[in-house]
Amino acid sequence: MAIDRRQALALLGGLAAVPYAHAGAPLRLAAAWQQEDGGHRIGVLATGGALTVQHALEVPTRAHGVHVLPDGTLLAAARRPGDWLVRWHPGRRVEPLWHWIDATRSFNGHVIASADGRWLYTTETDIDTGASLVARRDARSLETDAEWPTHGIDAHELIWDGATLIVANGGVPTAPETGRVKRDLHTMDSSLVRLDGRTGRLLGQWRLEDPRLSLRHLAWNPGRTVLGIALQAEHDDTASKHAAPILALFDGQRLRAVPTPNAGGTGIHGYGGSMAATQDGWAVSCPRANGIATFTPQGEWRGLVPLPEVCALAVNGRQLWAGGLGSSLQDALAARPSVHPHAASLQGAQLDNHWVGLG
Fold first, then answer.
1. Is 344 exposed, middle or buried (0-12, 13-18, 19+ CB in 10 A)?
2. pLDDT for residue 48
3. H-helix or E-strand spanning residue 238
4. Do residues 134 and 122 touch, judged by C-beta distance below 8 A?
5. What is the pTM of this model?
6. DSSP letter, residue 127
7. Which of 271, 284, 262, 274 has its CA nearest to residue 333?
8. Spatial CA neighbour of 154 closest among 175, 138, 137
9. Which of 164, 193, 215, 299 has the largest count of CB atoms under 10 Å?
């Protein structure tokens, strides 16, 4: 049976009495969100009972992926097709550094840094051709130093694997004049690519058997031996979309989709949001299903943890944190997670896909 928002709220009501602080000290989370009045923010959220806003920066449009440097500096890129990138240190009286992209390019929502912090890497799209690329940028100035093709379109999240970059090409065709509107889905070409982190040379490319599955968000298992990829189905007919898998696994040689048993019955709708992994297994947020799809480390289906309009996921130690609309879960994979209601400053706010735990 599908879990709708009302049922998810009722199930969470049974957890409301679980004490907040039993699992340890408060946690701080780097995040992006949209306020109830439509304004967009990035910043730091803190627990210790209710989830509150500790620091916030207003941004021009919706932010997506956030990345935190060792000194606490927060990086964020606008959601595709985005035109801004920002570097900001919450809590310091230093003006944020903004970068507005050239008119021939657009940001695709994700930015990460090199291990030494010298370089930033952003996924972008060439407006004229539609081809995707990774831009290597100077971490101080945010200016582009080099550009490398991702050998696909709609590049989304990127992640390090030692000295190489792994990039998810979502493969969904769009056009500059229509922004995020999807078109010609029969020509989809989603893939996972490995690039040399110094030169951008293509070292490998992998595709799923079903071309209508878009590879989006990435997370390593704790041993960094298997990569989990959240999937979003783009089939024309509803039945195929609802039955589609939302998780793929990559072991460095083989990319395979993981079945989601009775997907239509559980209301997953073929839509995976954020991606996370703990010692207990894989987790994919499913906002359209009002829950977190959970799998064993081997990719076997476990079930759906209810949380209305859940989107953001973060791992802190052995615990999975999940952010929904109005409340968030601590240790979401436990038999009885702790519920953190959102404070007044977050009432009605919509959390974006990505959290980063700050301890």
1. exposed
2. 82
3. helix 238-242
4. yes
5. 0.91
6. T
7. 284
8. 175
9. 215
